[in-house]
Amino acid sequence: MKIFKDKHTLQREILKTKGISFIPTMGGLHKGHISLIKESKKSKFKTLVSIFVNPKQFNKKSDFRSYPRNTKKDIKILKKLRINYLYIPTSKDIYGFKTKNKVFLDKSSKKLCGKFRKGHFEGVLNVVNRFLEIIKPKYIYLGKKDYQQLYLIKKHIEKNKIKSKIIECKTIRENSGIACSSRNSNLNKNQMKIASDIFNYFTILKKELKKNYNLFNINRIKKDLINLGANKIDYIENYNLKSFQKIKKPNKKFNLFFAYYIKNIRLIDNI
Ligand code: PAF
């Protein structure tokens, strides 16, 4: 595994290859990332992972500061997985150049997480646009847990006619059912149990809604979540994955999207 801190050195190396399969991360690697990497390794291209905790996508300084970081452990994991390249840029390496493409922010960026984390998706697309220009990957691997992010990156790629293809990968879960996330490492045992109870609650709710959509009573659901140990709820909404629209008719296929807090730890998922 070769490690790069500077985009020019990285680009010189990439030029020698037939192409790159790219997994962007903010570190704090978990089973979800590992599964993306394993998918990427099945492609005929070299696997490149980036680790960059992007300050522009955090709407609160405290959240940026408390975001889990453990580069030493991450490097160990990546070495074991035998990836080809690791890119750990500085902020200057990423933000110190003018991009060719403008960020395209689809209007659906204002919904769900976009409504509650002002500037978050602008920050995500800004950094992803820069990574795409530096690396020009054939494939980019993204998890469906962050489905709104995946959808918006797809729209940006389409609008700018960028040649990278998104490979959508399924959400990987802990044994307790909760979606793997770097933020899980900030949860203590009791908080893990709350997150797992909430996951089970939503799994049962979704089954019930499929039979009787009238049970979708937001106030009741919010009360139940608070009783289970959530401290704040940002949203609970049903979206069709293809159109990425809130469902109007109960018979439409949907995923239940939710975001809530346990203390100051924000968790999101869709099932
Ligand atoms: O999903 C993430 O970890 C980040 O939003 C990403 C795509 C690496 C951009 O910083």
Give an overview in words.
With 271 residues, the protein is of the alpha/beta class. It folds into two domains: 2-169, 3-Layer(aba) Sandwich (Rossmann fold); 182-270, Pantoate--beta-alanine Ligase, Chain: A,domain 2. It is 40% helix and 20% strand. It has ten helices and ten strands. It has helices at 7-14, 31-41, 61-66, 71-80, 91-95, 112-116, 120-135, 147-159, 189-211, 218-228, and strands at residues 2-4, 20-25, 46-51, 85-87, 139-143, 165-169, 232-240, 245-246, 255-262, 265-270. The strands form two sheets. The chain has a six-stranded parallel β-sheet with strand order 1-4-3-2-5-6, with helices on both faces. β5, α8 (147-159) and β6 form a beta-alpha-beta unit. It is globular and about 60 Å long. 32% of the residues are buried. The model has no long low-confidence stretch (mean pLDDT 97). It binds pantoate (PAF).
Characteristics of this structure?
Rossmann fold, binds pantoate, alpha/beta, 271 residues, Pantoate--beta-alanine Ligase, Chain: A,domain 2
Under the CATH scheme, which class of the largest domain?
Answer: Alpha Beta
Q: Roughly how many Å is the radius of gyration? A: 19 Å
Spans of at least 5 consecutive residues whose pLDDT stays below 50 are: none
Q: How many domains, in number, for the residues?
A: 2
- Biggest sheet strand line-up: 1-4-3-2-5-6
Overall pLDDT score: 97
Distance between the termini: 35 Å
* Helix-strand category: alpha/beta
Q: Give the CA-based shape.
A: globular
CATH topology of the largest domain, by name, is Rossmann fold
